[in-house]
Amino acid sequence: PDAIKHRLRTYKKFLFVRHPIERVLSAFRNKFEKNYTSSAYFKKRFGVKIIKKYRSGIYPEEVPETGDGVKFSEFISYLIDTKPENLNEHWAPVSSMCHPCHVRYHIIGKYETLAADAEYILRLVGAPPFVHFPEVIPSKTTAVVESYVDTLTTRQKQGLVKIYEDDFRIFNYHFRNLI
């Protein structure tokens, strides 16, 4: 505890955030739609339960043991029904994990301005001028947010906004065009 307090008092602290809905969608696509090695764990751990609970008209023996095939709307229903403290770090609100109201961050950068914000932090901490943040590859998620959100009911959209309301407010993101 003393070492932690020392770091919190003396280190430069920064946090990077992303639009909450885009972050949730990115996590969903990465963990449930892709076939990465790590995706298999999430599909089996969460996907099977999500399909069993939220897929209407499916018999238990029809649920794939692998957890493949979770729909975005099913995933959102799962998020809405899960206690905030039980949400996985990949989709839990950033404000509940990083405590921006308790930790005095020097910089809160945004994914949307990652390159410029990272460069600013490097200069702030005194990195040599030849040290730069790697090239940022634009997100493919941004272009498809609307099509995924359109699959949700009004109740699901409102529930999603409620889960991430602190992130929207604290980090100055907007959701009005989503519901």
Automatic annotation (TrEMBL):
Principal subcellular localization: Golgi
Enzyme Commission number(s): 2.8.2.-
GO BP field: carbohydrate biosynthetic process
Keywords: Carbohydrate metabolism, Glycoprotein, Golgi apparatus, Membrane, Signal-anchor, Transferase, Transmembrane, Transmembrane helix
Top-level EC class: transferase
Pfam families according to UniProt: Sulfotransfer_2 (PF03567)
Subcellular location: Golgi apparatus membrane
GO molecular function: sulfotransferase activity
Membrane topology summary: Single-pass type II membrane protein
Keyword Membrane: yes
Coiled coil: none
Gene Ontology CC, one term: Golgi membrane
SUPFAM superfamilies: P-loop containing nucleoside triphosphate hydrolases (SSF52540)
Family that this chain belongs to: Belongs to the sulfotransferase 2 family.
Protein name from the UniProt record: Carbohydrate sulfotransferase
